[in-house]
Amino acid sequence: MFRSVRHMIYDLIEWRSQILSGTLPQDELKELKKKVTAKIDYGNRILDLDLVVRDEDGNILDPEQTSTISLFRAHEIASKQVEERLQEEKSQKQNIDINRQAKFAATPSFALFVNLKNVVCKIGEDAEVLMSLYDPLESKFISENYLVRWSSCGLPKDIDRLHNLRAVFTDLGSKDLKREKISFVCQIVRVGRMELRDNNTRKLTSGLRRPFGVAGNCAL
């Protein structure tokens, strides 16, 4: 309710600025005033406030100069217009909800949340830890890699992300759920020397990416 009223107030402020600018043609000014009064009457209705009866130009009817019958008829017309507006918005909301539900039912989407706590593996150098989803029957990966750079000290390279290594594998649709098996695969790539036992400084290399280990879980 608050968001609806706030949105209506923003509209009224904008329309008021247009009216006060004095740059609108008479026909557009007349239509805009009708739109303003309709918005006000609609807002009063959803807030359970009194309904203000108006003439065709949107001006408030003076009960001292308007007969009781005219006031009653004007009140009936205004009430009918507001109710039609309420039913129209209710119908639009129902259609939007139905379309959303139909779209979700037609193309369901699921996600897998992963929280990396630690890498218990003695590597000896910096490493890259890559996590992804894999279909063992089709022998192919079905997701992108979640990459974590791990230091030789046994901590993430980005120390600010310590205890905050999280990822979400999204857009897993009905096709993925129909797969017989989905494996969660973790690959470790060592980044450093060609050989760990290479202690000769003349042959020492750095920054080379070498496969080091892999692990998987077929419980998905």
UniProtKB/TrEMBL annotation:
InterPro entries: DOCK (IPR026791), DOCK_N (IPR032376), DOCK_N_sub1 (IPR042455). The keyword Mitochondrion does not apply. Keywords: Coiled coil. Residues 72-99 form a coiled coil. GO terms for molecular function: guanyl-nucleotide exchange factor activity; small GTPase binding. PANTHER family: DEDICATOR OF CYTOKINESIS (PTHR45653), DEDICATOR OF CYTOKINESIS PROTEIN 1 (PTHR45653:SF1). This is DOCK1 protein. The gene is Dock1_5.
